[in-house]
TrEMBL record:
<dbReference type="Pfam" id="PF00889">
    <property type="entry name" value="EF_TS"/>
</dbReference>
<dbReference type="InterPro" id="IPR018101">
    <property type="entry name" value="Transl_elong_Ts_CS"/>
</dbReference>
<keyword id="KW-0251">Elongation factor</keyword>
<dbReference type="GO" id="GO:0003746">
    <property type="term" value="F:translation elongation factor activity"/>
</dbReference>
<protein>
    <recommendedName>
        <fullName>Elongation factor Ts</fullName>
    </recommendedName>
</protein>
<feature type="domain" description="Translation elongation factor EFTs/EF1B dimerisation">
    <location>
        <begin position="72"/>
        <end position="289"/>
    </location>
</feature>
<dbReference type="InterPro" id="IPR001816">
    <property type="entry name" value="Transl_elong_EFTs/EF1B"/>
</dbReference>
<comment type="function">
    <text>Associates with the EF-Tu.GDP complex and induces the exchange of GDP to GTP. It remains bound to the aminoacyl-tRNA.EF-Tu.GTP complex up to the GTP hydrolysis stage on the ribosome.</text>
</comment>
<dbReference type="InterPro" id="IPR009060">
    <property type="entry name" value="UBA-like_sf"/>
</dbReference>
<keyword id="KW-0963">Cytoplasm</keyword>
<feature type="region of interest" description="Involved in Mg(2+) ion dislocation from EF-Tu">
    <location>
        <begin position="81"/>
        <end position="84"/>
    </location>
</feature>
<keyword id="KW-0648">Protein biosynthesis</keyword>
<dbReference type="InterPro" id="IPR036402">
    <property type="entry name" value="EF-Ts_dimer_sf"/>
</dbReference>
<comment type="similarity">
    <text>Belongs to the EF-Ts family.</text>
</comment>
<dbReference type="GO" id="GO:0005737">
    <property type="term" value="C:cytoplasm"/>
</dbReference>
<dbReference type="InterPro" id="IPR014039">
    <property type="entry name" value="Transl_elong_EFTs/EF1B_dimer"/>
</dbReference>
Amino acid sequence: MAITAGMVKELRERSGAGMMDCKNALAETNGDIDKAIEYLREKGLAKAAKKAGRIAAEGLVAVCESEDGKTAALVEVNSETDFVAKNDLFKEFVAEVAKQALQTNALDVESFKAEAWALDPSKTVEEVLNEKIAVIGENLSIRRFEKVVADNGAVVSYIHGGGRIGVLVEVVVDGADAAVVECAKNLAMQVAAIAPKYVSSDEIPEEYKESEKNILTQQAMNENPDKPANIIEKMIIGRLNKQLKEICLLEQAYVKDGDLTVAKYLEQVSKEAGKKVSVKRFVRFETGEGIEKKEENFAEEVAKQMGM
């Protein structure tokens, strides 16, 4: 069967694959477009497997919120280079993954990738991911997601740096009006900027406290080798308390008013609103955190993108 330009155009629009790939797929499947799409998907999976060993440490975080403000999802999708992270096709895919995460009941990434893709239930999330890898030409990874459902209150999101950092904050309140939502947004900005680990000191595991105490004790002994142990013990109490406050949201200095702690700011908002506003939890994703990146210079990255 003769392969026409119109057939190639249609397949390219439907699959997003390159022109020559589409032409070859049609030739292999005797002009059957549906079979050609399957052929491209299979090819895409093969390409994805070859790219899977590459480090994907760039990318974006994105959020999707329900209209009632009760549910929100935060996702991180990684790419190999910052170039792709700024690509409109990649951005669109990340936004779609966030929408998928808002609807999912999956508890981990593997289960999430195995479920049907909401925009096309004939495919799984992983199959769509592999199609994007084939089209974009880089290893991509859905690294993590978190879905937060507010039982009594609201979930508010904040994205910083065009998708570099994403935050969800769940507040507990009887009726989330505009003032409460603004408060939660301010707290989300605080979490993005200062990166606390816990809401309050009550959440800090005892083993973490003990580990930090041991480190501070050793530091103090190295700095003051002539001081007795009981004096060292008194010295580190203040240091430990200060350090623990820095990692707890409620005990941090409020970034918009350094005279207040976050806890005092919440008290202020609660008084003005006439109802108690408290923070139940927060989630903070920073793109690529904890991933060991391969060092490359800018010229090499450009050359890679240009296929040089």
